[in-house]
Amino acid sequence: MLEFAILGLLHQAPMHGYELRKQLAAVLGGLRSISYGSLYPALRRMQAAGFISTDEPAPRALLPADAPPLTGRRGKVVYTITAEGKERFHELVSQTGPEAYDDGGLFGVRLAFFRHTARDVRLRILEGRRRTVERQREGLRSSLARTRERLDRYTLELQRHGLESVDREVRWLSELIDSERAESGDRPAPRAGEDDGPAAARHVPT
């Protein structure tokens, strides 16, 4: 996830470490905290692999001419994606297997860089994610049906809340998939349980 996100950000523009960490926090959306202790080792590994290069300030450029002696100020190292890094990013962005959508965190990062992803790949990832979440929903429904009578009302409300969250994600994914298909001119295929989709949600009486 971290390598993919770093390459995706540097694909857009070169950045120094502080800016890269700030942008990573925005892309990951609070899914995980990126410390300098994890960022810089990752950057060193990626540099060793040839995926990124650094533009370090020349020694004389580190300080202004009138800087006082023994000052601790330093110039900032700028990280830039290389041609090999772009190839690696496009390799990662083209993956459509379960690794792209089974994990919610990685799926979120993939979604953040969908503009770099081909439409057919976007569709396969979105459909894979929807299948994953639908399986989760069925598991929650089965669990709730089995244990409903044994749960106190607070635990029951917690499980209902989880089920509602999963329902919302399925509807959201269906809307994204319909939008992708509409842009490509494809007609959405009929699906089992279509009443769970966004169209049905919009027609629920209030």
UniProtKB/TrEMBL annotation:
<dbReference type="InterPro" id="IPR036390">
    <property type="entry name" value="WH_DNA-bd_sf"/>
</dbReference>
<feature type="region of interest" description="Disordered">
    <location>
        <begin position="179"/>
        <end position="206"/>
    </location>
</feature>
<dbReference type="InterPro" id="IPR036388">
    <property type="entry name" value="WH-like_DNA-bd_sf"/>
</dbReference>
<keyword id="KW-0175">Coiled coil</keyword>
<feature type="coiled-coil region">
    <location>
        <begin position="130"/>
        <end position="164"/>
    </location>
</feature>
<feature type="domain" description="Transcription regulator PadR N-terminal">
    <location>
        <begin position="6"/>
        <end position="90"/>
    </location>
</feature>
<protein>
    <submittedName>
        <fullName>PadR family transcriptional regulator</fullName>
    </submittedName>
</protein>
<dbReference type="InterPro" id="IPR052509">
    <property type="entry name" value="Metal_resp_DNA-bind_regulator"/>
</dbReference>
<dbReference type="InterPro" id="IPR005149">
    <property type="entry name" value="Tscrpt_reg_PadR_N"/>
</dbReference>
<feature type="compositionally biased region" description="Basic and acidic residues">
    <location>
        <begin position="179"/>
        <end position="194"/>
    </location>
</feature>
<dbReference type="Pfam" id="PF03551">
    <property type="entry name" value="PadR"/>
</dbReference>
